[in-house]
Specification:
Number of helices: 34
Cofactor: FAD
Helix content: 40-55%
Largest sheet: 7 strands, antiparallel
Subunit structure: Oligomeric complex that consists of at least the alpha, beta, beta', gamma, delta, epsilon and zeta subunits.
Structural class: alpha+beta
Protein name: FAD-binding PCMH-type domain-containing protein
Strand content: 5-15%
InterPro entries: BBE, FAD-bd_PCMH, FAD-bd_PCMH-like_sf, FAD-bd_PCMH_sub1, FAD-bd_PCMH_sub2, Oxid_FAD_bind_N, TPR-like_helical_dom_sf
Family: Belongs to the oxygen-dependent FAD-linked oxidoreductase family.
Strand order of the largest sheet: 15-12-14-13-17-18-16
Bound molecules: flavin-adenine dinucleotide
Number of domains: 4
CATH topology of the largest domain: Vanillyl-alcohol Oxidase, Chain A, domain 3
Oligomer: single chain
Radius of gyration: 33 Å
Length: 858
Amino acid sequence: MAGAPDHLFNLRNNFYLGAYQAAINTSDLPNLSPDDAVERDSFVYRSYIALGSYQLVINEIDAAAATPLQAVKLLALYLSSPENKESTILSLKEWLADSTIANNVILRLIAGIIFMHEEDYNEALKHTNAGGTMELHALNVQIFLKMHRSDYAEKQLRIMQQTDEDHTLTQLATAWLNLAVGGSKIQEAYLIFQDFSEKYPMTGLILNGKADAKDPETLANLVVCSLHIGKSSSRYLSQLKLSHPDHVLVKRASSAEDNFERAVQEMHDSMAPYVTKFPREAFQNYRDLDIGSSPSNQTNFEEAKEYGLKYFKGNFLRLVKVKGMVDPDNLFKHEQSIPPPLLLSVSLAANSDPSLDNFLQCLPNNSLPSYPISEAIYTTSSPSFESVLLKYINNRRFLTPETPKPLAIVTALHESHVQATVVCAKSHGLQVRIRSGGHDYEGLSYVSEVPFVILDMFNLRSIDIDLSSETAWVQAGATLGEIYYNIANKSNVHAFPAGVCPTVGAGGHISGGGYGTMMRKYGLSVDNVIDAKIVDVNGNVLDRETMGEDLFWAIRGGGGASFGVILSWKIHLVRVPAKVTVFKVDRTLEEGATDIFYQWQQVSTELDKELFIRAMPQVANGSVEGTKTIRISFYGLFLGRSEALLSMMNKRFPKLGLQQSDCIEMRWIESTLFWFDLPNGTSIDVLLDRPRGAQVFFKSKSDYVNRIVPKEDLERIWKMMIKAEPMWMQWNPIGGRMSEIADTATPFPHRAGYLFKLQYSINWSEEGSEATDRYISLIREMHDSMAPYVTKFPREAFQNYRDLDIGSSPSNQTNFEEAKEYGLKYFKGNFLRLVKVKGMVDPDNFFKHEQSIPPRWI
Ligand SMILES: Cc1cc2nc3c(=O)[nH]c(=O)nc-3n(C[C@H](O)[C@H](O)[C@H](O)COP(=O)(O)OP(=O)(O)OC[C@H]3O[C@@H](n4cnc5c(N)ncnc54)[C@H](O)[C@@H]3O)c2cc1C
């Protein structure tokens, strides 16, 4: 009604000018009509959204709320969880198709905002173009400017001016257009922001606007203020000199500035020992361009990091993220402004490799702006490049100066970063090495002979457990220790069958099969995977249903890195008793170890599934000084109490002489520490420790045994081991559940009919290639001499115990004949099915490494 008081004027204005907290604070308005109350609430909730409080909005707006508020909730949902954005957009489209609400102005506005975010400007305009409110017109201006159609933006502005020339949005839209047009129009934009700053409390939006539209008097003021507070004014003066060389201040200051600046700088330098370091922090309100700046027509990320970390420390990255959300084209900028992540490309222009430059520039365009990928990228010029690279290298063999280094590392923070890395590496000819826990025995997750980037998954590590269905979704970057810990936190009687080392990553471990101490009861990790999410070669995120059973089969044991990037696994949790029993019994040759080991061979694969006994022979000092012997450690896990264990052992494996005093009852989670050789009583918190980088050099190899080794041959093996010291072996019994699962059920074929999985390993700490060659020769000789006792034609091997000695293809191609060498050893007949699946999902062989699956038979 004309002339009626507009109760919402201040609230709206605060919102338009970016004073979101003030908008919330002034929203307590009595006696509003129902419509005004809804409008008020929509501004309040939009303010919360602008402040990042999405969840509050989602929680407070319930299903009974009016359409405009439901629309605002959709915006909160869209911005808060990009992984659900498709379903949010689907709901939005359903609403827009409903003729009873499709014309609601707030719904149309939100539709415009969401589609503008999606960079689907035509779709956005479908809903906003008809106008209807000043906000819709203002949004049209923004959309047209994004489309670089300032002519259309101007037309919209004219409509706004005709409707209400003094409206805050009309003024703002005028300033946006002026800034976009540039030249002398910038001064006009400045005056608009100046006017706002005089009328209203200062907000980031006004400040940024003013700073962007710089004029000589602003610069002169900055010079004077800087001098006044004892800070350097050189940058403002040089700007003033360039733009207005005849300004009186330029003339007066030029003679004094050199001396003044030197004095200030010296004073500042001499204070260094007494103030904060790394970074030397600063207060943003005491602006100081000496601490770093970007040229004013661009905002270079690396330069901005210089001053950004000093002013804001870790908060700088969040500011970059917010900037990317609200001003992705960097309209509002100055020498120390916050760069949007998009401008990362500018900072990387210095990289010499053109394919890398193109790759880096491609990344932001293929990932969600709300998760700035810039925060995830490390190039060789990034200060943390080396520490990020080294943290997940597990073997010092791949830490030498000669080891090829990646051109960049993308430490994905969101699945869209994985998608972007795949799409951009593919389109710019770079190889990708995927790393989750970095435990690959041959370093294939972080080393390649051809130009490559590492896609590092360690940040994607969430673990989401649902006890009611006894399942969990675990992301690839989670470690086994984290999975075990999180399960135990929820339940004492659930577990997951996987490996012994807690820092191994779920991404590589599970896709390579994953065996552990519960294999005889529950099979391998892959036998307990019921779904997975993967990014395929086209950058699509697929789950079991959308990837199809062939690909789902292949990634459960065939090695994920040949087929795509595993984002997460849905695992089935298995049941364990509240108390389990563990033991470790050592016996030397003098104590009858050969007889014991011989009996162990006969019984260990036939015992109850609940019992797993690993035998670990290694060289030790003999009882006579200067002699060597073999000490065999028998490690056991029994999924039950010690009494039942002892009774079984006395009957079936009496030679070991297991005593009650050898047995320790504990929770299953504690048994994972026991198997990692941690002292009894160690806190389970150690399971959360992340890798600490490579501690030793090592080389490992594997074998499968399908017939019992006679005693006399055991004696021979011990002699060979003494020659190969410090090499050690682990013999792991199969049988139980493993024999019940068909050898074609997953790519892992070593099931029924197999007795033991062998691992050989040798560790050393001496630097240099001579030592490396020597130790590797020792383990190779030992492996060669074991040939009579292990599988033949092919001599099989375990994929998770990667060993390039058994065959490899050069890393920029995958030759079928070469691949057959290692492929048949790892997968037997399943190799051919893997080749077929590879041909279906990655026919151009983008995902490759020295032991990957080739896409065809040539
Ligand atoms: C100390 C130690 C103990 C071990 N104990 C066991 C054990 O008890 N049982 C067992 O089965 N194995 C064991 N392993 C072997 C281990 O399971 C494998 O090395 C496994 O591949 C490591 O996975 P990762 O993610 O840590 O390694 P990474 O080096 O990150 O990856 C290994 C391989 O998987 C690929 N990959 C990694 N992440 C992904 C992904 N997200 N998508 C697609 N491909 C990916 C890599 O490109 C690489 O080819 C052990 C290894 C070590 C070093």
